[in-house]
Amino acid sequence: MFLIPANSKKSLLIFGVFDLFDLILFASGLGVSILLLLIVSPSSLLGAIVDIAPVLITGFLVLPIPNYRNTRILIREAYRFYTRREKFIWKGWCVASGTGEKE
User: N or C, which terminus of the chain has less Cβ within 10 Å?
Assistant: First the structure.
């Protein structure tokens, strides 16, 4: 009998929270924001918000939340749940062939 530690999958992540794709996604958002700040150089608050929007969006997507690795995974799982409904047929001791009738 083997005992698997609860954090075994967490040890495969970077800093225990991020996947490689998450860090690449955040770094690309940060890079785009820096380029926008250098090229456009905002003169108003709205311009500054538009310039830093990529890093804010990617930061929101990789933000760690409870029970999921991050917001990106939560959104992906919610999308899969509502678009790929699977039919699970229950075969328990009180149900015969999923019809709900007793044998």
Answer: N
